[in-house]
Amino acid sequence: VKIFAPNIEQRDVVNHLKGSPAEEKRNVLVESARLARGNIQDLAELKASEFDAVIFPGGFGVAKNLCSWAVDGKNCTVNEHVNSTLQAFHSAKKPIGLCCISPVLAAKVFPGCEVTVGQDKNVDGRFPDAETASAITELGCKHICKNVNESHVDKANKIVTTCAFMCKAPLHEIFDGIGTMVQEVLKLA
Known about the structure:
Blueprint: E1 4-5, E2 14-15, E3 20-21, H1 28-35, E4 41-42, E5 54-56, H2 60-66, H3 69-72, H4 80-91, E6 96-99, H5 103-109, E7 114-115, H6 131-138, E8 142-143, E9 152-154, E10 159-162, H7 171-188
Parallel strand pairs: 1-4, 5-6, 6-10, 7-8
Antiparallel strand pairs: 2-3, 9-10
């Protein structure tokens, strides 16, 4: 297992203690190295031929830094290294795992694929970002409704997705969903 991140400037920096923007600049690779305890490489160096699968985490950083979804929605652009990584694994018929908001990357890069970001309606207030499912459909992809503890496998494209924090749920349910995504990716590898 190796961890990669793009060597780019973050779109913005948030002071999570105050919940407001911070007046500073940070680099995605440097911040990712902090989280990964330094054991990380530039995404530009990733070679699909050296790996059996790839998994993209989610989080608002994906929507801001790996693509421009946070600002542009379905009209977003995908970072060139993220796009080429996804294309390389897809072309090699190797599995791709995506959780939380990152299934929008597949929806943007692979028209016609099947993904999930949870539900397409805000069921009991648990899915506040349910409109993302509609945007995925507008991109020509099929959104599959799933609960937070489930994942969806697009067998034709070897894409496995789960909604994770796109659902307001207890952490153990989110953990279960991510676990099923990882298990399904490993089965396809």
